[in-house]
Amino acid sequence: MGVAVMQVANAIVDLLLSKVVTLGDVQVIIDGFSAMGFPNCGGAIDGTHIPILGPDHQGSQYINRKGYFSMVLQALVDHKGRFTDINVGWPGKVHDARVFRNSGLFRRLQEGIYFPDRKITVGDVEMPIVILG
């Protein structure tokens, strides 16, 4: 049973993930968030803990701050709540900030390749596309 589950999970990641979890049209997302009162916003991000059975190896790393075994899921969503980026698999003990700093999303943001270079001026400050967290 375990092998079949892993084969299905791997197939989902290899074949479907990039088709379902995708950024889409950034301007539509920005316009959607702007209509809600959040100008120049490219997404909203948060993390959650997915409960798991305690692993035999390094189990204490998977006990989160609430005292149960988990893995961390970090998700970025658009203005309609659709996933545009996900990162899952970190042990529950790991802080959200560390998960983010080690994510592909963070790397792409730092490299300037996730969002286009669109800035707006707020007062006298140039504001790039932001993420709500």
Automatic annotation (TrEMBL):
Main location class: nucleus
Transmembrane parts of this sequence: none
Record domain DDE Tnp4: where: 45-124
Cellular component GO terms, alphabetical: nucleus
Compartmental location: Nucleus
Record's keyword terms, sorted: Hydrolase, Metal-binding, Nuclease, Nucleus
Cofactor field: a divalent metal cation
Molecular functions (GO terms): hydrolase activity; metal ion binding; nuclease activity
InterPro entries assigned: HARBI1-like (IPR045249), HARBI1_dom (IPR027806)
PANTHER family cross-referenced by the UniProt entry: NUCLEASE HARBI1, PTHR22930
Similarity section: Belongs to the HARBI1 family.
Name of the molecule in the record: DDE Tnp4 domain-containing protein
Lineage, broadest ranks: Eukaryota, Metazoa, Chordata, Craniata, Vertebrata
